[in-house]
C-alpha cells in the first residue's frame, strides 16, 4: 500500500480482506495518515481532509469485513515528518511549497489517537514516541519544523524526511511488541501455536495433510 491514503484503502479493502473461512485475521494494525496529511493542493493529490480521514479510519476499523474476524486491532499514528529533508517544488502549494508539514502531520496523529480512544482500540502513538525520544516537550516548537534548528534524532529516524530508517523501525517493533503484550497478552509470539507444522514433525504433517484433503 505504498502511498495509499485512507480513501484508497477503503476502496481496496474488499479485494484483500479474506473471509474467516479462508484465513483468520487474529491481530491487525491500521497504519494510515502520513499521506492523508499532505497539504491541500499539492501536486501528488493525496490530501484527505482531516474530518474525512477520521471518518475513513473509523470505517476501516468497524468495516463488516474486518468485524467478521473479530481481530485485535491496533491503530498506528503517522510518525512526525522532517521539513528539513522534504523537497519543495514550485508546483506545490501550502507551507513554503512543502508537500507535508510537521504541524499538519501532528493534527492527523492527534486525530488517529482520538479515534482509538473513541472506539476503545489501542493506539501505537508513533508521533509521540518519536517526538519524546527527540526531546520534545509539549508547548515547545516541533522538532522537524524549519522554524527550529535541525534535531539530530529526527534526522536519523526519517532518512528522507518522511520514510523510516532502520533505527526507526527498530523502535516500531519494540514499541509494538510492548503494546501487544499489554493490550493483547494472548497474542504475544511466545504464546502462539504455529499455524503450519515444523518440518520434522511427522504427526503434525499427518494431521495437516489429512485436513487439507477434506
UniProtKB/TrEMBL annotation:
A Pfam family this chain is assigned to: Lipase_GDSL
Record bears the keyword Hydrolase: yes
Keywords on record: Hydrolase
Gene3D superfamilies: SGNH hydrolase
GO molecular function: hydrolase activity
InterPro entries found in the cross-reference section: GDSL, Iah1-like, SGNH_hydro_sf
UniProt xrefs under CDD domains: Isoamyl_acetate_hydrolase_like
Name of the protein in question: SGNH hydrolase-type esterase domain-containing protein
Species assigned in the record: Phyllosticta capitalensis
